Amino acid sequence: MQPFELVIREAKTVSPLIRELVLEASQAEALPPFTAGAHLKIQIPELNDQRCYSLIVTDPAHDWQQSPQQYRLGIRLEEEGNGGSRYMHQLQVGDTLNVIGPVNDFPLNAAKDAEPALVLIAGGIGITPIASMAQNLKQQQRPFSLHYSARTQEQLAFADELQALLGEQLICYTNDQNALDLNQLFADLTPNQPIYICGPQGMIDAVIELAKQRGWDRENVHFELFITAAPLAGDQPFEVELRQSGLSFTVPADKTIVQVLEEAGEDPMYDCLRGECGVCTVDVLEGTPDHRDYFLTDAEKESGKVIQICISRSKSPKLVLDM
Ligand code: FES
């Protein structure tokens, strides 16, 4: 995909931490179409890197078949992050951005006959792709409910327009008043209701685990993480040997295998960098992987024969990979 330039036409604060940007082509020409759950990859010049932001649609008249005139984003300020969101928050109307996309790694499945009601769950800024899904499902008159959780009432960004769009299909929760109880939510669901969730990693992990405990099919839980690999307390350096090339590297506690290989001039395959897509799968010849991905099955993880090198690490001092 080729990058292209967009201009910021509107910018406003929609919650204490979330800023909304409305983007247009510089000559106001139509933009590439997208589907619910899609995101833009935005170049952050200060970091020489990209950040992904989901496209929000809550307009009931939006035509998903047409080329849109505008893209709308919600960006959460991450004070502890490495600067991507701070860059996005200081942008002003008239500033330009280089973008790639739209790309959709979190699509809604096509409607099935006699489909059970879909369950949408959003935590915090995870509302951005989920809002577009809700709008799309509403337009298709498919059955669903949206469970939207934030820390406080004022952090429920876009809640007013979602309330107007969805009515009783929107259920809001705040940690300080009526916290979302996932156990209770699951108690009210029927087995294998399709779930689409976007939010903090802990919330996604909890939903995956609850579905697993109930014996639900794994493919009925659809999710999108907004994070890339982050070190955990106690992470240790380890050695990685590439058997085909004969090269060896040390992977420090605060870097991933992919990062180390790239810094060394290697060209590893990857895409999401979140352990979701499967693009970076590599065969393990020796050593014990420390799996942190959401792509491999439990059986594949137990086999120890493959690893997602974008996020997973090593339990043994050394891993030998077939690359
Ligand atoms: S790059 Fe997507 S799973 Fe590793």
What's this entry about, in short?
The chain has 323 residues and is of the alpha/beta class.
Summary keywords:
18 strands, Rossmann fold, 30% strand, 323 residues, six-stranded antiparallel beta sheet, Ubiquitin-like (UB roll), 7 helices, Elongation Factor Tu (Ef-tu), domain 3, binds FE2/S2 (inorganic) cluster, single chain, alpha/beta, 19% helix
Mind explaining what this structure looks like?
The structure is a single chain. This protein has 323 residues and is α/β, with parallel strands linked by helices. The chain folds into 3 domains: 4-103, Translation factors (Elongation Factor Tu (Ef-tu), domain 3); 118-224, Rossmann fold (3-Layer(aba) Sandwich); 238-321, Ubiquitin-like (UB roll) (Roll). It is built from 7 helices and 18 strands. The chain has helices at 84-89, 127-140, 159-166, 182-187, 201-213, 257-263, 298-303, and strands at residues 4-13, 18-25, 39-44, 49-54, 71-76, 96-103, 118-123, 144-150, 170-174, 195-198, 221-224, 238-242, 247-251, 281-286, 289-290, 306-308, 313-314, 318-321. The strands form 4 sheets. It has a 6-stranded antiparallel sheet. The longest helix has 14 residues, at 127-140. It is globular and about 60 Å long. The relative contact order is 0.11. The protein binds FE2/S2 (inorganic) cluster (FES). The site of FE2/S2 (inorganic) cluster has 14 residues, from loops.
